[in-house]
Amino acid sequence: MEAGIVGLPNVGKSTLFNALTSSEGAQSANYPFCTIEPNEGIVTVPDFRLDKIARYIPPEKVIPAIIKLVDIAGIVKGASEGEGLGNRFLSHIREVDAILQVVRCFEDEDVTHVTGAVDPLTDIEIIETELLLADIQTLENSLPKSERAARGGDKDAILRVEVSKRCLEHAEREQPLRTLEFNQDEVPVVRGLGLLTAKPVLYIANVDEDDLTGSGPLVERVREHAGTGGAPVVPVCARFESELVTLDAGDRAEMLEAVGLTEPALSAVARATYKTLGLQSYFTAGEKEVRAWTIPIGATAPQGAGVIHTDFERGFIRCEVYRLEDLEEHENEKEIRSAGKLRVEGKDYVMQDGDICHFLFNV
């Protein structure tokens, strides 16, 4: 799964993306940096639990979870009608699973704002409006074809018509589709329609260097808006973070301490993105590696095993599970087993974030 970084021009999107994909453990794909094609990068998800597991089960290497980010060129007002190559940019957003909207929350006379004034809520409204208009256009274009198929008794088409009409009414009320609830049968329909405002959103408030914790009034306005839709907000000073990633570990720690931070804000962005994508991690631990494996929230034990290898899912027998707290209390797996804390779970077990697992399978 991947997340797309969007926003108006000159809000700090590319600075943030470059910092994220230049951070330790990140890898940037070999895509040309230009104003049209998106840039792509792989970013690690910092997780303190990995280091704690490795203290008790020392491995040759520690492998964190990763996420894919896409830096999409700036959207302008009128993008839904093709302004600023808008259709092309909107198609790039359609391909991602979540939206990271960078919102400018700093004043700088040397950095021109596209609307002429710094107002994060106006920025959010412009982006939201363009995505809503694009969704309305998508629904209006697809609905007649679905209605024709539905008249022939096609059950999938009948469901598609019902879902499309409900989505269209909601979008025309200027409400993003992520605020609508869909049942298990409807979710694949919505996903198949490629509706932009149905995607989960994380707001990244790009702040000034004198407001690294995001306590200023501009960020508070973003938090108030985001709270109405249950969206998270992460404050980041993209300029500060881009300087931070160029330092070695010692200087980086010293610089963080000097400004009163315990970790780079990029770490919080990566974790929040992971959660926004609906992902969680389970761990495997042994002498060769301690590793975080990425699974969707709600995945069953066989599905979790299948992330390692499809044979594990196909021949799944059972899963042995314990928690980090068990490891911290008993210090090794042998003592965990002796204490009766090593649980045996079957095919119906729903994986929990932070499970440490051994899978037994037969093919």
The 3D shape can be described as flat
Helical region count?
A: 14
Structural class comes to alpha/beta
Determine the strand fraction and express it as a percent band: 15-25%
| Spatial order of the strands forming the largest sheet | 2-3-5-1-6-7-8
Account of the 3D structure:
By secondary structure, the protein is α/β, with parallel strands linked by helices. Helix content is 42%, strand content 20%. It contains 14 helices and 13 strands. It has helices spanning 13-22, 48-56, 86-94, 120-151, 155-172, 186-193, 217-228, 238-244, 249-258, 265-276, 301-308, 310-314, 324-330, 333-338, and strands spanning 2-6, 27-28, 39-45, 61-63, 65-71, 98-105, 201-207, 233-236, 279-285, 289-296, 316-322, 343-345, 356-361. The strands form three sheets. A seven-stranded mixed beta sheet has the order 2-3-5-1-6-7-8, sandwiched between helices. Helix 4 packs antiparallel against helix 5. The longest helix has 32 residues, at 120-151. The radius of gyration is 23 Å and the shape is flat.
Give keywords.
363 residues; alpha/beta; 7-stranded mixed sheet; 42% helix
Layout of helices and strands, plus pairs?
Layout: E1 2-6, H1 13-22, E2 27-28, E3 39-45, H2 48-56, E4 61-63, E5 65-71, H3 86-94, E6 98-105, H4 120-151, H5 155-172, H6 186-193, E7 201-207, H7 217-228, E8 233-236, H8 238-244, H9 249-258, H10 265-276, E9 279-285, E10 289-296, H11 301-308, H12 310-314, E11 316-322, H13 324-330, H14 333-338, E12 343-345, E13 356-361
Helix pairs in contact: 1-8, 4-5
